[in-house]
Amino acid sequence: MNIFYPVELFANWLTYDIFAFAHENRLAESINFFIFDTIKILILVTVIIFVVSIIRSFLPKEKVKAILSHRYPFIGNILAALLGIITPFCTCSAIPLFLGFIEAGVPIGVTFSFLIASPMINEVALVMLLGMFGWKIALIYIVSGLLIAVFSGMIIGKLKVESLIENLDYQNSSPKAESKISWQSRFRYAKRYTFNILKKIWPYVLVGIALGALIHGYVPTDFLARYAGADKWYAVPLATVLGIPLYSNVAGIIPLVSVLTEKGVAIGTTLAFMMAVTGLSLPEFMILRKVMKPKLIIIFAGIVGIGIILTGYLFNVIL
């Protein structure tokens, strides 16, 4: 049963009855797509963030920092990447927590695993990919993104780049005891947190859906497939490079990925583009420049970029 069938009926009613657009009309198809996907995605994102916020209320920041400072760095990288999956942050909002981990003395490679995983692979991405592409693609995407975050963090940690961090005073903070929190307080926190996140991401969601709607209604089916098909060896690195100047969160970019895939663009190419937009972006680099030397930003972008390109090729081969 399609739980969004009422939303589909509403979108059809608004497009064809209220706005009185004719069927088989490109503009009507774009508007219908925009209305349906906007409502559906905002419902999904709201529910998901609220539920995850309740879960996060059981994880005090001090305890999280203590867990991430594991005696075995590899374990810390995995835990940090998993933490990134359950935190619904875009890149720019993940950076303050990333800096907090560094200041608390969490190993630098572990903090990078979190920074990479948080915007690239979170519960919003999982549910949206599951709904649009099915469990197979959602699972492969999550696993590949997790591997990119873990191994990129490990490599950066091995390079001993602490000297490339600027203006930070490393201090080890002792975890504080977790206080008892009532369910009423948790719900208030989740409500406030969900509202704050939605307030930040809704413009990116609308822009992403609008771009998807334009492509859905106006771009010929074979146009993008001709230039970004799986048979084009350069498609994946080109998509990765093109994604870097852009900025969006995963909720804003997945609708565009869905439409590009429908138009015949190889799934690995579109997902490489999505990973680059969410995991590597110029606004992110500008913020990181305040605390990192350019050399470290280049190392970070290079390692993650290679991981994204390899993932894109992997998708194109196996799917």
Number of individual domains: 1
> What's the shape?
globular
Give helix and strand order, one letter per element, not per position.
HHHHHHHHHHHHHHH
According to DSSP, the number of beta strands is 0
The largest pleated sheet is described as:
none
Radius of gyration: 20 Å
Structural class: mainly alpha
Percent of residues in β-strands:
under 5%
Can you describe what's shown?
By secondary structure, the chain is mainly alpha-helical. The protein has one domain. The longest helix has 36 residues. The radius of gyration is 20 Å and the shape is globular. About 3% of the residues have low confidence.
Jot down its keywords.
single chain, 319 residues, 15 helices
List the helices and strands and how they pair.
Blueprint: H1 5-18, H2 26-56, H3 61-68, H4 73-85, H5 91-103, H6 108-120, H7 123-133, H8 135-158, H9 183-218, H10 221-228, H11 235-243, H12 250-262, H13 267-279, H14 282-288, H15 294-318
Helix pairs in contact: 1-2, 2-7, 2-9, 4-6, 4-8, 5-6, 6-8, 6-13, 7-8, 7-12, 8-15, 9-12, 11-13, 12-13, 13-15
In short:
The chain has 319 residues and is an all-alpha fold. The chain has helices at 5-18, 26-56, 61-68, 73-85, 91-103, 108-120, 123-133, 135-158, 183-218, 221-228, 235-243, 250-262, 267-279, 282-288, 294-318. 75% of the residues lie in helices and 0% in strands.
